[in-house]
Request: fold
Amino acid sequence: MTLTEKLDVLLEEKNLNKSQLSAQSGLAYTTIVSLYEKGAQNAKRSTLLTLARFFNVSLDYLADDEIDERGTRIYASAGHFDVNKLTPEGRERYEEYIEFLADKFTL
Reply:
């Protein structure tokens, strides 16, 4: 499944359109449209990371067309794990880990 197909499924699940995704995720509408035109191949890591966090899915799920199952979610929902409750040191280590994963799974 391609990035855009995955985005369509995720948008439908949240009952959102591209414009609402832009407003709620903080991504520019033109960035989202560009993803639909070009796919994940030319997407910025920061864009994919923002989408992964927003939809609570792993980065590899979004970036890799061969992965169709969401698998383990890196960004746990607030009901299970609240990043904002971490100490400053814990938050820094968490962000370093996310960057490590982003480097590992971004095309």
